[in-house]
Amino acid sequence: MAMIMGENFDKYWGDCNLFMAISSILDPRYKMKLIEFCFPKIYSVFEYETHMKTVRDSLYELYDIFVVESERQSSIEQNSQSFQDIQRVDEFEEFCQSTETFRPSKSEMDTYLEEIRFKCEKAHFDVLEWWKMNTLKFPTLSKMARDILTIPITTVASESAFSAGGRVLDQYRSSLSPKTVDGLICSGSWLRATQKAISPPSCDYIEEEDIRVVIPDDAEQVANV
Fold first, then answer.
1. Any alpha helices (H) in the chain, and if so which ranges?
2. Domain layout of the chain by residue ranges
3. Rounded distance, CA 86 to CA 77, Å?
4. Rounded Cα gap, residues 212 and 224, in angstroms
5. What's the maximum distance between 2 C-alpha atoms anywhere in the chain?
6. Dihedral angle at the C-alpha atoms of 45, 49, 55, 58, nearest 10 degrees?
7. What pTM value is reported for the model?
8. Are 52 and 35 in contact (CB under 8 A)?
9. Residue 148: which residues within 8 A CB-CB, separation 6 or more?
10. How far apart are CA 69 and CA 74, in angstroms?
11. Cβ atoms of 51 and 42 closer than 8 Å
12. Left, alpha or beta for 202 (phi > 0: left; psi -120 to 50: alpha)?
């Protein structure tokens, strides 16, 4: 049993999870320090160096994609201005825009990683709120953080989420049409939601396995109605 558990652990955690690594870097409390601390404890010296290079290269590659997209979007917005709007711009501003060619020597990513970590004394830290407050300082990097950190994480196992059909279709009811099955599952979901609104259960949650969909003999007729 221990060997089987070890194989499953290596299957899911043997390779570097880029999404988790990049997400932790975009947390101003951790940045690169968290993976620099954890990776040597998980991987060998050679694997540690390889994974660190992979994470860093992927981080900057993803950032470059956002930079190109941000510049493209900015160019589109500028080109979409009408001639009348351009004429309203102050001559001094036009002169500055045409002569200012300064580009920062460091990218937003370099500046972000070189700054010291954000030390939060509160028990709850809203990382998205932090990026929102620092949008002016990191306009491109904040967009990248928003898109990555807002990816929802499900709390239901994928096997359980996709096993609802097995409780509707069995060896005795295998000829139901997809439309009927869809109607039965949706109806059951609506009924459970209504029941919870009227009389919420005393327990904190209901296990997925405890939910059963009752299908009458004339299921096709009920679904059509």
1. 2-13, 18-25, 33-42, 45-79, 83-87, 91-99, 108-114, 127-133, 139-149, 158-161, 178-198, 219-224
2. 14-149, 158-224
3. 12
4. 21
5. 80
6. -150
7. 0.57
8. yes
9. 19, 22, 23, 26
10. 9
11. no
12. alpha
Q: Give the residue from 25, 33, 30, 10 showing the smallest Cα distance to 55.
A: 25
Q: Is 176 exposed, middle or buried (0-12, 13-18, 19+ CB in 10 A)?
A: middle
Give the model confidence (pLDDT) of 88-135 as tens digits: 556 666 667 666 655 567 899 999 999 999 988 877 899 999 999 999
| CA–CA distance, 72 with 65 (Å, rounded to integer) | 11
pLDDT at 225 over 70: no
Token pair, residue 184, equals 């039965």
Tokens of 10: 């290596």
Residue in this structure with the two tokens 């899911």, named with its chain if needed: 12
Residue 219: both structure tokens together: 């299921």
